[in-house]
Amino acid sequence: MDKSLIRGEAARLLGFFQEQGAQVVEADILQPAGTLLDLYGEDIRARAYVTHDPVQGEVMMRPDFTVPVVQMHMAEGAEPARYTYMGEVFRAQDDITNRAPEQFQVGYEVFDREAPVEADAEVFALVKDVLAPLNLRAATGDLGLLLAAVRGLKTTERRKAALERHIWRPRRFRALLDRFAGRAPLPEGREALLAKDDPMKVDAPQIGLRSPSEITTRIETLREDTAADPISVGEVELLDDLLALRETTGNVLEHLRDIAVDMPAIADAVDRMERRTEALAKRGVDVENLDFEGSYGRTSMEYYDGFVFGFYAETRPDLQPVATGGRYDALTRVLGHQNGERRDIPAIGGVIRPELTLLLGASS
Question: Which UniProt keywords are given for this protein, alphabetically ordered (predicted)?
Fold first, then answer.
């Protein structure tokens, strides 16, 4: 598609958000790799274009806008704040996705300490309004529910931390949960290793970068985990119920209240969702027919930790979402604690792909 047409559509969407009171901002295309690696680990290398600058060191071509916008806000932004932006993001693609590695995005971000629930409703409703002519299906979820459920499990802190770290990797999460619940065997060779009186006593030179003390600590950690009681069948079933939820927003609250009776750790998150549902309704959103999925958002960017949403063309399942978004409070805390500062602020944002709005608009 002609880039000038995409840029024109992006400018139209940007103007819409600007009319809502958002400040237009820009972000450098080259971003310091260190920050992104700290946030996502080495996995980001498989999804980003990495190069080396003689002055800045290792850098990445901008894989998204949220991180640089958060950094900008934490450094100099007023509160509350609303930002909008447009430009290209660059992500390496595999043969399966068949998506362009260079894509235009238009975004809208809200930083609001006093009214985060209302901010959730605001971002979702504005994205919905600007996309209304395309008759898209909206899907929503809430990663805050799952995070709260994991943190409330009756198991060791190490196990909870491992599960929380892999919430955005569903297969790894399931494998860990099955193992911690005693439903899957230990990895091959681990049982024999831990059964030795002195696992470090081997007739071979040391291989790898870990020191003997680090290896010893790791072995003791594995022994403690092996000795821990399994996560109960009841808790696993409640987690499965939570992940399997597929209902309208108007109906799902009753199911969540039932789960919260036996899993009180999610009660605050359920209360938050109820308030958000009311705020969405006040914004004119038909919550009685708004889809909610308990596992939605688990394959998105790892900084989402609350309300998440996406808009899809039901007649074009081959296309990626036309728009996606979510809450990322933890990200502002991580970036706000850099350089010795300790700042954080609730934040939510969403992005629209103007190439898809053009494509769907032309075919409607």
Answer: Glycosyltransferase, Transferase
Helix (H), strand (E) at residue 121: helix 116-130
Cross-strand pairs, 327: 348
Q: Name, in order, each residue with C-beta under 8 angstroms of 178's C-beta and a sequence gap of 6 or more.
A: 184
Both structure tokens of 250: 């108007």
The percent of the chain in helix, strand and coil, each rounded to the nearest 5, is 50, 15, 35
Spatial distance between the Cα atoms of 104 and 97, rounded to a whole number of angstroms? 17
Nearest partner of 126 among 298, 331, 325, 292, judged by Cα = 325
Confidence of residue 307 (pLDDT cuts 50, 70, 90): very high
pTM of this structure: 0.88
Structure tokens at 77: 């932004």
pLDDT at 101: 84
**C-beta separation of 128 from 138 below 8 A:** yes
Both structure tokens of 202:
């081997």
Is the alpha carbon torsion for 215, 160, 157, 234 positive or negative?
negative
Give, in order, the Cα–Cα distances in Å from 212 to each of 35, 195, 202, 220, 260: 30, 18, 12, 12, 45
Cβ neighbours, 10 Å, residue 190: 14
236-272 pLDDT, tens digit each? 999 999 999 999 998 999 999 999 999 999 999 999 9
The pLDDT value given to residue 361: 87
Report CA Rg, the chain: 23
* Domains of the chain, CATH where assigned: 3-25+62-149+236-363 (3.30.930.10), 28-61 (no CATH), 156-231 (no CATH)
